[in-house]
Design goal:
This protein is α+β, with helices and mostly antiparallel strands and about 80 residues long. Helices cover about 25% and strands about 50% of the residues. The protein is built from 1 helix and 6 strands. The longest helix has 22 residues, at about 60-80.
């Protein structure tokens, strides 16, 4: 699986591409991410449109973790369909 993303004022863009057996799918979507400092240090980041949240020690780590969490969530949802 591959993905790319960026966090800007307008939200988080994630492009996901994968090949599972003979089924090929390429999708992209734009999500809104909310990044907040965590009380214990680091950052908590949440996706507004999906039930996905994670954390990281830096902004960059939190964003990378959110991309991975969203990708995993979408793959599981697609497999369940």
């Amino acid at each position: 699986m591959t993905y790319q993303g960026r966090l800007a004022g307008e939200g988080l863009f994630i492009g996901i591409g994968y090949c599972h057996q003979q089924r090929r799918q390429l999708a992209s979507a734009k999500f809104t991410a909310v990044l907040e400092p965590a009380e214990e240090g680091g950052f908590v980041i949440k996706c507004v449109e999906l039930p996905v949240a994670t954390q990281g020690e830096s902004r960059e780590e939190a964003l990378a973790n959110l991309k991975e969490a969203i990708e995993g969530y979408l793959v599981v949802k697609a497999d369940m369909a």
